Inverse folding.
């Protein structure tokens, strides 16, 4: 089984959504009430997949390193934290409404262009951001020219986002929903923080927020960890947990949702100008290497370096690791150099010193920070996309049959193995299989299945990404005590002694981990 797998072709988002629903990975939240936009539930297999991803991250980032410790802070924190961090005033996205269709857009995801024929503007087109938006806009420009029966040469369509529109253009740009100009509002800022109340009084003093990132819980505990954790700079604090954002346009399945999970590290360093560029590069490489460890092939991952002029005032550098999602290359993991901004802000707002005494340098300073921030759900989507595979394999009658399977890396696969007795009405086969199942499940999540033709049972496990199927047959109980182990990807089988199966799986999991 290859460690780093690559899909035969990229699945469509619809194929992934359908497979996830059919096999119990991911369901729309509150489905019996018609669903709830931007919220998703993880079913039995999705919960395992997600847990395995989080465990693999924690193992690599916390347990296998001497310089990172873990944290689990609360979702609701003192509201002053979000004033200090800048979220209350500045965590906004620009929003545009279509007054006619009542559809809502994010202005930076809404693109428009004037349609020019021989230098003359004959109207405007608009599209929502997507991998195919250029082609879509060109098609709309051709259609407009045809509709208005304008003769001449259509000039190339140059798309700009709605934030770049001049006020006099607002009335001319059509809404993507209706195709008619004049119904879009100018962009206005919308704060993404979810508000809630703490305590019995419903007044201003009880207002609180659900955290929009796990990071601030780390900054707020910086002193606690330094004072109790025997840590020395450089060191990191890692946290996995829920985050909430009232996204204007949740979309692309679990890619952008309103409730999601993050895996974040704040890596504290000294303030020397020479330090952060080195640590920043190390973190980009560490993050890329970890993605390959969980089966995301390197060629599907890119680096998007934010241009200097787009960085926030305190940021020295940000690189997004992008992934080739079914809807185009998009951010998976952000690695940001945030300087001493956050700790300084908390020092200012809380009145508590965030200074650190560096024994080696005999110096006091507010540490700087490099922040690798990864979404769990986006990682689940990336893992599913990379694993989705198709081929043809012989069915029970020996005829070629199309197979859809998930080539999960064994580390993240919901089930590590499945155990089958060849026939369910032969007690000696069933008992041996059950005994093996009992033995293996003490170590891993292992499936047991006695029903149906063996080919169908293999196919079911292929579709949920189980790397190995172990079959107890008559040779096991009557002849040499060996079982067959079938490999999901190649479908080839080997015979292994019954008492060597646990070691056989263990070795492969260790090699791949
Ligand atoms: N502390 C920094 C921070 O939160 P971010 O770029 O806003 O930075 C970090 O988010 C990561 O969290 C993203 O790269 C993405 O993987 C994930 N993420 C952000 N918003 C998300 C959403 N609405 N749904 C799912 N994942 C999201």
């Amino acid at each position: 089984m290859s460690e780093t797998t690559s899909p035969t072709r990229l699945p469509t988002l619809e194929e992934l959504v359908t497979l996830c629903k059919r096999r119990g990975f991911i369901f729309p939240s509150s489905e019996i009430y018609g669903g709830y936009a931007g919220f998703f539930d993880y079913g039995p297999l999705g919960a395992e997949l997600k847990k395995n991803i989080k465990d693999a991250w924690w193992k690599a980032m916390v347990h296998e390193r001497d310089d990172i410790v873990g944290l689990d802070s609360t979702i609701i924190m003192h509201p002053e934290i979000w004033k200090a961090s800048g979220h209350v005033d500045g965590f906004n996205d620009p929003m545009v409404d279509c007054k006619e269709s009542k559809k809502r857009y994010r202005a930076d995801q809404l693109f428009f262009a004037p349609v020019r024929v021989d230098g003359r503007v004959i109207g405007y087109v608009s599209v929502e951001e997507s991998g195919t938006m250029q082609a879509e806009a060109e098609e709309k420009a051709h259609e407009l020219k045809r509709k208005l029966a304008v003769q001449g040469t259509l000039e190339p369509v140059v798309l700009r986002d709605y934030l770049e529109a001049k006020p006099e253009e607002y009335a001319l740009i059509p809404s993507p929903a209706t195709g008619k100009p004049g119904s879009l509002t100018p962009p206005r800022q919308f704060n993404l923080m979810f508000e809630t109340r703490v305590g019995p009084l419903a007044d201003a003093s009880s207002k609180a927020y659900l955290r929009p990132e796990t990071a601030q819980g780390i900054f707020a505990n910086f002193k606690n960890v330094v004072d109790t954790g025997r840590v020395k700079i450089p060191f990191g604090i890692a946290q996995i947990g829920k985050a909430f954002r009232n996204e204007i346009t949740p979309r692309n399945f679990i890619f952008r949702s309103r409730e999601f999970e993050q895996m974040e590290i704040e890596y504290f360093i000294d303030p020397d100008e020479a330090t952060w560029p080195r640590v920043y590069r190390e973190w980009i490489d560490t993050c890329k290497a970890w993605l390959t460890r969980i089966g995301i092939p390197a060629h599907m991952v890119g680096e998007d370096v934010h241009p200097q002029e787009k960085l926030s005032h305190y940021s020295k550098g940000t690189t997004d690791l992008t992934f080739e999602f079914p809807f185009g290359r998009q951010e998976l993991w952000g690695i940001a150099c945030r300087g001493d901004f956050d700790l300084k802000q908390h020092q200012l707002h809380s009145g508590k010193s965030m200074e650190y005494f560096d024994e080696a340098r005999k110096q006091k300073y507010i540490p700087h920070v490099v922040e690798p921030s990864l979404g769990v759900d986006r990682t689940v989507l990336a893992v599913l996309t990379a694993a989705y595979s198709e081929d043809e394999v012989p069915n029970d009658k020996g005829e070629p049959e199309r197979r859809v399977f998930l080539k999960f890396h064994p580390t993240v696969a919901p089930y590590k193995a499945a155990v089958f007795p060849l026939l369910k009405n032969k007690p000696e086969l069933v008992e041996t299989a059950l005994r093996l199942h009992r033995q293996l499940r003490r170590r891993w999540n292992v499936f047991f299945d006695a029903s149906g033709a063996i080919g169908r049972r293999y196919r079911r496990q292929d579709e949920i990404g189980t790397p190995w199927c172990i079959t107890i047959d008559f040779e096991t109980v009557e002849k040499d005590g060996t079982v067959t182990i079938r490999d999901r990807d190649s479908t080839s089988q080997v015979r292994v002694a019954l008492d060597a199966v646990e070691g056989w799986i263990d070795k492969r999991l260790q090699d791949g981990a």
